[in-house]
Amino acid sequence: MTRDHYAKIWKFVGAILLYYALNTWIVTQGGNEVFSAKLVSANRVPASVIGIFICSILLVLVCLLGRSYARTAGKAWHSRIPVVGLDGLDTSSREGKWYQRAVLFCFTILPAAAILHFWDLVHDAAVVSTNTNEPVSRWDWSYTFQHWSDPARICSIYDKSDKNPCKDSGTFLPGLETWLLIIVTAIAAIALLWYFWAIGSPSRNIRVKA
Question: For a disulfide at 169, which of 8, 89, 137, 155, Cβ 3.0-4.6 Å?
Answer without folding.
Answer: 155
